Structures are given as structure tokens and as C-alpha cells.
Amino acid sequence: MRVGIDFGTSYSAAAAVVDGKVELIRFGDACQFRTAVFFPEQVPNPDDFRLTPALAAQVESIVRAARMQQARGPDAQLRRDAIRVVRRQWMEEQARTAAASIADFQSALFGEEAVEAYLEEGTGHLIESPKSMLGYRLDPPVRKVIVSIAAHILEHIRLTATRQLGVPVREAVIGRPVEFRSSMGVAGGAQALELLREAAAMAGFDDVSFLEEPAAAAMHYHLGLAERQDTLIVDIGGGTTDLAHAELGGGLPPVVHRSWGLPRGGADLDVGVNLHGFMPLFGRDASAVPAHHYVEAASVHILPKQREFRRQDYRRVEEPYGSRLRALQRPGATTRLNRLAERIKIELGGAEHSEAALGFIESGLAVAVGQDDFLQASQDFLQRLRQLLERARADMAGTPASLFLTGGS
Ligand SMILES: Nc1ncnc2c1ncn2[C@@H]1O[C@H](COP(=O)(O)OP(=O)(O)OP(=O)(O)O)[C@@H](O)[C@H]1O
Ligand SMILES: [Mg+2]
């Protein structure tokens, strides 16, 4: 059985054709889930500590060293102290190995549940929107983690579909943006497809093909059109914006003439709200902290940037910015801030003002954002969107009979 998969930056969904009809795969109560995975930290259990021969040897050498320094006290006491030292080192080592091997997927959580667990537990690892990293330059360990995570999400979809449909699902058509988010231009797009193929194979798919997302989006409109029609499909998602010019409907197969892509979407609007609306409270434009630190803090979906932000030392930054930045470095804080930015963005679609409480940064801290601020923060995206539409307008011979708008943004 073959499924169609929308592996979205923000949300993922799947469907299959059963007896000539499209059947959506259900994930719990919904037909989509947030593209996020959470791996709980493997907390080492002190009761698992055993004096293996290697550890016993370490204890002996500590005791010997203590005696040489003419430490006082009975031998039994020296030994007890030495065991305590070895045991602490052992615990630290266990914690380090656990953090390094998030490839342990047994206890992973998906979707909204993943984000909530991460925010609640304050430990563990949350990976959101792995799709937006596929086109980035990745060092081998990060590459491995990203592929495993994509594989895990695809496997979650495959197993859920297999359960629902009652037949093994081994083939997939996976949606792809016209242009992937990339730090390496076209090469980033090629890498993204290669990583997705690898992930799909790991997830147990024997056969995989790709379909441009706007072409996939066109299918729904196509099936409902009695008359043949020239259409421009506009899909503004979380990570990318895709256009396709297609001839649809009328009982004939759909023909996609051309497509255009912009590797920007709703997630960039969130970053905009975050940078313009929130970051001034953290000293953006008002402290000596370099501007790129704020971009790194706001880029919650790019692991290397997040790591870079957490590594900074803000102990000498003037108050109140120093304390706020340090609070933002705590696990989960940038994710929480980004969720508030997303909520404000959505609310500003229908209201003049919106606000958010930032008590997790500083007691009583709050921020208000107005529609004007939001438009200001969205300038870059809007400008690029306008250029994309102009390019499409120039490339098309005539004016399409209709526009089909889709995507969460
Ligand atoms: N009411 C709303 N107003 C503005 N933005 C919204 C609204 N509802 C959802 N969004 C945004 O839509 C985006 C998700 O859209 P969608 O599900 O189409 O993306 P996706 O398919 O996961 O991503 P992509 O296709 O880019 O890989 C998110 O950025 C979300 O914040
Ligand atoms: Mg999409």
C-alpha cells in the first residue's frame, strides 16, 4: 500500500487512496500532528552503580594517592570517600552518554505532546521542524541525528497508517517544496532530498517518490472542478511558500506548467515578531550584545544556532538584559518564547493588539505588540512574497482564471 505524505515544516499529515477514495490517516483525534519529536533525558539511576573491576581499580588508586599525601583517617574512611568520587564520575559519564545518544527512540513523543513534555520536564531534547534543517550544512553527527529524527517521524506515519488501513504500508509519495530552505543554494535542495530518501528507507519504506507540494495541493481543487481551468496555486506554509501554475479539472489529468518557490514561510513571521517585538526587552539595539546573538536565540528550529546562543556568557551584560538573556538560555525558554511569537502573530491576523506574559523570563515581565509592529516585522517576508508573485506573473502568458490559496499562513 502506498501513502501520500505531507512532511511539513510545522505540521505533517498522510493519506491513502482506498477503493478509489482518499482516506486521511488519523493521529489521535486529528488528521495532522506538529512535526516535533521529544526524547526524554535518560536520567542515570544511582542504584545501577556497581564496582566493576575497572572502577574498583580507580578506587584503589585514589586511596593510594590519599595515603601518599598522608591523609589522615582510617583506611575504611579513605575507601568510602574514594568510592564516592568514583561514583560521582560514573554518574556524570552516564549522563553524558545519554545526552549523546538521543538515537534511543523507544520513549519518543510526537506532535504537541512532544512540545508540552519538553516544556514541562525542562530536560531532554525537543526537535521541531527537522525539515527546515535538511538543506543546511550539517556536520556528520548532526546530520545523523536529523536523518534519524526524520526517519522516526516517517516511521510513526508508516506504522499509524499500517494500523489504520490494516495492510502493510511500504511505499510513499512525499511532498517536497519547490525550493528547500538551504544554506547552500541548490546543493541544499539536493542534500534535502538525499536525506529524506535515507530517512524513508530507515523508516521501512521500500519505494519513495517526490511530488512538488503545490502540485499536491492542486489535486484537491482539481478533483472538485467540473470545467477545465487555468489556476495559480499559492501554498504559504510554515517553512516555504510555493506557487504552481496548472490546468486543472474537467475530468482530464492535471497539468502543472510551472512552479516557483520561496524558502520562507510562517516560521519566519514568528522570528520577525520575536526579533522586533520581544528582543528589545533582551537588549537588542540597546546593549553591547552583538545583533546576531538575537537572531540565534530566535531561530529555534536551527540547532547549531541555538547551541551557539546557549554557549554565550552573559554574566557581564548590563541589567536587566544580562539576567533576561541568561533566563532565555535555560532549557525550553527559546521554544516558549517562539510559541508566544506564533500566538501573537495569529492573533494579530484579527486584532489590532496582542500581548504576552514573559513571567518565565522575569517576574511580571510582559510585552504588547501591535499590528503595525507586526507589519514592520513582516516586511522582509512580504517583500520576497511580492517578488515571487511578480516573477510568476511575468512567466505566465495570461492571467489565470482562479487563484487557489492554501497553507496555514
Ligand atoms: N490563523 C493563522 N494566521 C497566521 N498564521 C497561521 C494561522 N494558523 C496557522 N498559521 C501558521 O501556518 C504555518 C503552518 O502552515 P502549514 O501547516 O501549511 O505548514 P507546513 O505544511 O507544515 O509547512 P511547509 O509546507 O512550509 O513545509 C505556521 O507557521 C503557523 O503559525
Ligand atoms: Mg505545507
Automatic annotation (TrEMBL):
The cross-references to Gene3D superfamilies, in alphabetical order and at most eight, read:
3.30.420.40
Q: Does the keyword DNA-binding apply?
A: no
The record's annotation in InterPro entries points to: ATPase_NBD, Hsp_70_fam
Keyword line: ATP-binding, Nucleotide-binding
Q: Listed GO molecular functions?
A: ATP binding; ATP-dependent protein folding chaperone
Pfam families per the record?
HSP70
PANTHER family xrefs? HEAT SHOCK PROTEIN 70KDA
What protein am I looking at? Putative chaperone protein
